[in-house]
Amino acid sequence: MAFEPKRPQKTYTYDDVRLFTDAELNNYTAEEEKNFKIKHDIPLLEELESGPWPSFVADSKRYALRRRKLGEEGKLLINPDVVEDLLGQVELSMVHGETHWKHGGIVGVIGYGGGVIGRYSDLAAKYPGVAHFHTVRVAQVPSKFYNTAFLRSLADLWEYRGSGLLNLHGSTGDIIFLGTFTEQLEPLFAELTRVLDVDLGGSGSNLRTPECCLGKARCQYALYDTQEMCYEMTMHYQDTLHRPAFPYKFKFKFDGCPNGCVASIARADMSFIGTWCDDIRIDQDAVQGYINGAFPPGGGSHSGRDWGKFDIYAEVINRCPTGCMSLEYGKLVIDNPNCTRCMHCINTMPRALRPGVETGVSILIGGKAPILEGAQLSTLIVPFMKAEPPYDNVKEFIDKVFEWWMEDGKNRERIGESIQRVGLQRFVSDILGLPVAPQMVKEPRTNPYIFWKEEDVPGGFERDIDDYRSRHAR
Amino acid sequence: MDDLKQAVVEFLQGGKTKTKFYFNEIDKAVKDKIPGAKTLQVKKACSELINEGVLEYYSTGSTTLYGLKGTGIRTEG
User: Fold this and answer.
1) How near does any CA of chain A get to the CA of B52, in Å?
2) For residue A454, is it left (φ>0), alpha (ψ between -120 and 50) or beta?
3) Domain limits at A406?
4) What is the ipTM of this complex?
């Protein structure tokens, strides 16, 4: 089905919305760059320029020159020294071994509880250019397919109303605008939404901006339309994206197949991974083609060196994690119920093997990648679910999870931690009402003792604890 | 909705030492006062109070709290 936007899509060219001319942006000579010194001494930061990699320090200094000249011409709305003062404060933080940022606050745009993260300098008198240095998160387009008009317009707007420094992209996927003053937030938001037709992303106790892989737009492996689903969920859950009421952050990510190009299993609280529920399609002639050397394995991705003749046992069959493949009388045989969807055989022999035709998503919950400690992968909760518009089945499942987590999740506790606290079995069977599967068990139990509840046993049982205690002291 | 909004404001005004609250603290307090209130209704009440300028969000970047507008310590430049 062709993509249908929820509302008319705006189109514009860079010439319609540009704020600076090319000459204004290329406003310094090579000679000026060579002689330019920022207003602070930054010897520690300048050491970073001596390494083998491109340095943000060199980029920032060059950029500070441009802003100084734009500022002298009165073409910027915030302090033109922002980049110079930023470098100065970072240098001082390296000397002191502690940060000089005050983080958090009440800044934001009207009605939104996310998208802006307050940050102030505690040395505002010394570094007035970064007295305010708020971060603004701008929602990325699904799969990050931008046109240059959009990117150049964003860059112009941020040059004009902010520091001009940006980060493409943050961990969640947003475009991160780094550093502006409070009074610029509302006009910036107005221009982002009304002129450039793009929304703010999520922050705080919100649903964060959903993210998806390239999907069917570019990839033969996509097993559902990741962009369509990502867009639908973004629009459907707008309220949770902008008005925070969760115990902590919550992330959706959509991978089209188990290759997982957006690493949803490691980075999302709820991971949607494309899968199939029938059999892997096998072209036996193509299998022979790989064995005979007619086709390079892995689409030729490892053909830069001579790895020797393709060995289907060493490179495919013996690498199957569940051992569900064999070669019988020259034919490749797959025991499909035992396939764990690792994709290795399909990636290695893409002409010969293709996923099944009954496709949908696996839903996994509980992944997180915090900065300090506690990273964990999502756990498979729903092995297979159809993923077709309008995704009512998926939304019903999500609503159930949200309802429980909003009620029972503790503050600053990711859902993966909530599940660990109550137990996976209770979460799956008691809270979600789903059947548990053997594949959810990490390892067989070593203790044969099983605590049965009365309702677990057909016919139940009677137990008088007082009678028991009369014979057995506690 | 008005009774929910009133319950939210009364709870926030009753804070002895705190001025900023997590949503689920508000949710629990409102449900204690108005049995049968639903979490989504409490959220809608909070959102309306935000839009009316009675409440304001406080965000650390990773978590968000609610407070009466203008109360508590304010991080500023």
Assistant:
1) 9
2) alpha
3) 211-274+362-440
4) 0.93
